[in-house]
Write a structure and sequence with these properties.
It is a single chain. This protein is α+β, with helices and mostly antiparallel strands. The chain has two domains: about 220 residues, P-loop containing nucleotide triphosphate hydrolases (Rossmann fold), CATH 3.40.50.300; about 120 residues, RNA polymerase II/Efflux pump adaptor protein, barrel-sandwich hybrid domain (OB fold (Dihydrolipoamide Acetyltransferase, E2P), Beta Barrel), CATH 2.40.50.100. About 25% of the residues lie in helices and about 35% in strands. It is built from eight helices and 20 strands. The strands form four sheets. It has a six-stranded mixed sheet with strand order 6-7-8-3-9-10, with helices on both faces. A five-stranded antiparallel sheet has the order 13-12-11-14-20, with no helix packed on it. Strands 15-19-16-17-18 form a five-stranded antiparallel sheet, with no helix packed on it. Strand 4 and strand 5 form a beta hairpin. Helix 2 packs across helix 3, helix 2 packs parallel to helix 4 and helix 3 crosses helix 4. The longest helix is centred in the middle third of the chain and has 18 residues. The radius of gyration is 25 Å and the shape is elongated. The chain starts with 14 loop residues before the first strand and ends with a strand. The N terminus is likely disordered. The protein binds adenosine-5'-diphosphate (ADP) and magnesium ion. The site of magnesium ion has 2 residues, from helix 1.
Length: about 375
């Protein structure tokens, strides 16, 4: 009997993986995993190095075979199908262009391999180069292009034969920050224009938040949390997610008989409702941008948590200022705020209070 929540051939997903895993000898690169990707979705595999992102991509592409499990493409079991018959386009971090071929020939390559007529090839290569902003570069060799331009050729070579699924493994990893952000917008625009399903791999959380319909966060060969960027940021499941995506203040404590959380210094604070029983050990999180620094004599708002403390460090990083506060109960907190001029920014050693609203706290799984 098939559980409806398990992806499989009965769904209209672009890709569905059931129980897919990969072992190398005794090393588990990927634990048995279920994952489905919707038609036209932009799904990002995010995670630290070694978490299994490339393994998952290579399994879908067919570059490696799974130890267990089944892969469905458009509802068809393709687990045993050779890679080139899967019709999945790939974009690589190192571009993987052919150095002795011109831009035109690199982009034309997949069409020639599919034995398309010369006139079709000319038209399709022109269209693909137009889409990535490289018309006029047809006769250059890869070494005559910048890194960003080379990756545009890589993308053109991928979209030129209209694959229904495109996979990109850290495609912007070799580019500097400004160019990376520009290329992120361009890839998003291409996704909108083409409507292709994209599976994108990165270890950069900001890139993942910015680009994805959904993020699949991986750790140690497993999916830790799968959800929209909003869900991962505002409702992280556990400590790993909370710390990997954005910054977080973590506070641990034990529930008392009044339904409050007793934290360091024997202070009790309200927590979001959740039916916690007395004695339950909880880990709660509040994001630094939800923590306010107030003057020591400022009146306290209802529903706020307040701790007195002293400013530790202040780092000015342009638009935002990041401040650490050593509180009286021994808990170190981080606050982030929109930067003011130097004179108005918190000064190290100043006595302050930190406040945050109970509604901004998230209870994590421990
Ligand atoms: P990521 O892409 O997230 O950095 P990978 O999927 O490349 O991670 O690797 C996941 C794990 O599998 C790592 O621990 C890695 O060392 C291991 N691994 C990957 N490929 C092989 C291989 N060919 N032989 C042995 N171990 C491998
Ligand atoms: Mg990798």
């Amino acid at each position: 009997m098939q559980d409806e929540t398990v992806p499989g051939p009965h769904t209209a997903h672009a890709i569905a993986l059931t129980g897919i895993s990969k072992m190398y000898g005794l090393v588990t690169a990927l634990h048995p995993t279920d994952l489905s990707v919707d038609m036209g979705e932009f799904l990002t595999l995010l995670g630290p190095s070694g978490s299994g992102k490339t393994t998952l991509l290579n399994l879908i592409a067919g570059a490696i075979g799974p130890t267990t499990g089944t892969i469905f493409l458009d509802g068809r079991d393709i687990t045993q199908m050779p890679p080139r018959e899967r019709g999945i386009g790939m974009v690589f971090q190192n571009y993987a262009l052919m150095p002795h071929m011109t831009v035109f020939d690199n982009v034309a390559y997949p069409l020639r391999a599919r034995r398309q007529p010369a006139s079709t090839i000319r038209a399709k290569v022109a269209e693909a180069l137009e889409r990535v902003g490289l018309r006029g570069f047809e006769d250059r060799k890869p070494r005559q292009l910048s890194g960003g331009q080379q990756q545009r050729v890589g993308i053109a070579r991928c979209i030129v034969y209209s694959p229904s699924i495109i996979m990109m493994d850290e495609p912007l990893g070799a580019l500097d920050k400004n160019l990376r952000e520009q290329m992120q917008s361009e890839i998003k625009r291409l996704h909108r224009e083409l409507g292709t399903t994209i599976i994108y791999v990165t270890h950069d959380q900001e890139e993942a938040l910015n680009m994805s319909d959904r993020i699949c966060l991986m750790s140690a060969g497993q999916i830790t949390q799968l959800g929209t960027p909003d869900e991962l940021y505002f409702q992280p499941r556990d400590r790993f997610v909370a710390e990997f995506i954005g910054e977080s203040n973590l506070i641990s404590g034990r529930m008392n008989s009044n339904g409050q959380l007793v934290i360091a210094g024997n202070r009790s604070i309200p927590v979001p409702a959740g039916g916690w029983t007395e004695g339950a050990e909880l880990l709660v999180m509040v994001r630094p941008e939800r923590v306010r620094i107030c003057d020591i004599d400022e009146p306290v708002k209802e529903g706020s948590n307040v701790l007195s403390g002293e400013i530790g460090t202040t780092s000015f990083v342009g638009g935002m200022t990041r401040v650490t506060i050593q509180t009286e109960i021994g808990l170190n907190m981080t606050a982030k705020m929109v930067s003011g001029r130097a004179a108005s920014r918190p000064q190290a050693g100043a006595r302050v209070r930190v406040c945050w609203s109970s509604s901004d706290m998230v209870v994590l799984e421990t």
